[in-house]
Design a protein that fits this description.
Number of strands of chain A: 5
Structural class of chain A: alpha+beta
Strand order of the largest sheet of chain B: 1-3-4-5-2
Number of strands of chain B: 5
Distance between the termini of chain A: 15 Å
CATH superfamily of one domain in chain A: Hotdog Thioesterase
Radius of gyration of chain B: 18 Å
Shape of chain A: globular
Structural class of chain B: alpha+beta
Strand content of chain B: 15-25%
Oligomer: heterodimer
Largest interface: A-B, 44 and 52 residues
Strand content of chain A: 25-35%
CATH superfamily of the largest domain in chain B: Hotdog Thioesterase
Number of helices of chain B: 6
Radius of gyration of chain A: 20 Å
CATH class of one domain in chain A: Alpha Beta
Strand order of the largest sheet of chain A: 1-3-4-5-2
CATH class of the largest domain in chain B: Alpha Beta
CATH architecture of one domain in chain A: Roll
Order of helices and strands of chain B: HHHEHHHEEEE
Shape of chain B: elongated
Largest sheet of chain B: 5 strands, antiparallel
Helix content of chain B: 25-40%
Largest sheet of chain A: 5 strands, antiparallel
Order of helices and strands of chain A: HEHHHHEEEE
CATH architecture of the largest domain in chain B: Roll
Chain lengths: 187, 186
């Protein structure tokens, strides 16, 4: 059980932290386009056999008029390491032979760090809003933003932060595809 | 007949898996519309049952280029992160949810939004039940909105992903849900 910070608790929601709310990253173009091969691999891995993903004739006859793509699928395109970049995995293991394989791999479009001494991060939850299915051939753009930062107090009486990062995904026509939000606890 | 969640949680993993209601490609191709009027508060959606193996996890890591070792490197997971095994991805869980909602709303409804938390570590060998129960319904701007609680429970009843969702269904005799979807004004 958590509660809002009381006056006698040392606040971690400093003016510098509050100032990060609304800060946006650059608008980034994901590497590559939405293609049938990525769609096949993704839908097989999530175990969704929907013919709207692979039967073009059938897909044309549906409400959507074409092959559709799970919006959540294009959110993972943001994690792609561009081919002209250094090999991020090799670099990560050079820096730390016990790298977890993800923590030190830098991604494009990341937000500036929150100015806090709190370092331990836990995933607090996810949200997704869906507006339009991506199509084969789409170019995906994404933009990070600090949507909200709140303070709570744990059972131990110490304040911590709940940081919500929002990512907006659009296509080459600036059509809104989906919005994801990831909240993390910073203790 | 769909088994209620409570009944599933009294079954063995093998029995639970026999009640999987994930649709086949043909069932999705031929799905008939569920209308707003067909849904009542308290209704349970069809249960999606999964029993992921290490190979399923590896396939997911490869598909989305997730290199996090806790999902495929057992030695790292056990000895470095002190996890009980390799872990099922939160990203896979959050990708199942839109599929689950899409299937319910096909062919002309809309799986608008969902929110959920990640609470428990899931490992290969777990049998997972994706469930949802309708909590509210209302009409707005000629569309039918269905609110629900949802989650992913283990065979032991541990809720690993408590959350909620809102989907949109057409009204009987009403207009199609606009595509691309336009959220109603508050």
């Amino acid at each position: 059980m958590t509660q809002e910070a009381q006056p006698d608790t040392q606040s971690v929601l400093t003016p510098e932290v509050k100032a990060m709310i609304g800060v946006e990253g650059e608008l980034i173009e994901s590497w590559g386009t939405v293609d049938v091969e990525y769609l096949r691999r993704f839908t097989q891995a999530v175990m969704d056999p929907d013919p709207r993903y692979w039967d073009e004739d059938f897909a044309k006859s549906t409400h959507y008029g074409a092959i559709i793509v799970p919006p959540i699928m294009v959110s993972y395109m943001t994690q792609r390491i561009r081919p002209e970049a250094e090999d991020a995995i090799t670099e990560a293991f050079k820096e730390n032979p016990m790298s977890d394989g993800i923590g030190s791999v830098k991604r494009p479009g990341e937000l500036p760090s929150i100015p806090t001494h709190l370092v331990r991060t836990l995933n607090a939850g996810n949200e997704i809003e869906v507006y339009q299915y991506p199509n084969i051939g789409d170019v995906i753009f994404f933009q990070n933003r600090y949507h909200d930062i709140r303070e709570r107090v744990g059972r131990d009486g110490k304040a911590f932060l709940i940081i919500t990062r929002e990512i907006t995904y659009t296509n080459q026509n600036k059509d809104l595809l989906c919005i994801t939000r990831q909240s993390s606890i910073r203790r | 007949m769909s088994a209620p969640l409570e009944a599933l949680l009294k079954m063995t993993p093998a029995e639970i898996q026999a009640h999987n209601e994930r649709p086949t490609a043909d069932e999705l191709r031929n799905k008939t519309q569920t209308y707003y009027e067909d849904v009542n508060v308290g209704d349970e959606l069809p249960k999606y049952i999964y029993a992921p193996t290490p190979t399923h996890l590896f396939r997911w890591s490869a598909a989305i280029e997730n290199f996090h070792r806790i999902h495929y490197d057992l030695d790292f997971g056990l000895n470095h992160d002190k996890n009980p095994s390799i872990l099922i991805h939160g990203s896979w869980k959050q990708s199942v949810v839109p599929q689950f909602l899409k299937d319910f709303t096909l062919p002309k409804g809309w799986p608008w939004k969902a929110a959920f938390e990640h609470r428990a570590m899931l490992v290969p060998g777990d049998t997972l039940i994706v469930w949802a129960t309708v909590t509210n319904k209302y009409e707005k701007e000629g569309m039918g909105f269905i609110e629900m609680d949802l989650g992913m429970k283990t065979q032991d009843g541990v809720e690993s992903m408590p959350g909620s969702a809102t989907v949109v269904l057409p009204l009987k005799g009403g207009a199609d849900i606009p595509y691309p979807f336009v959220a109603p004004k508050d």
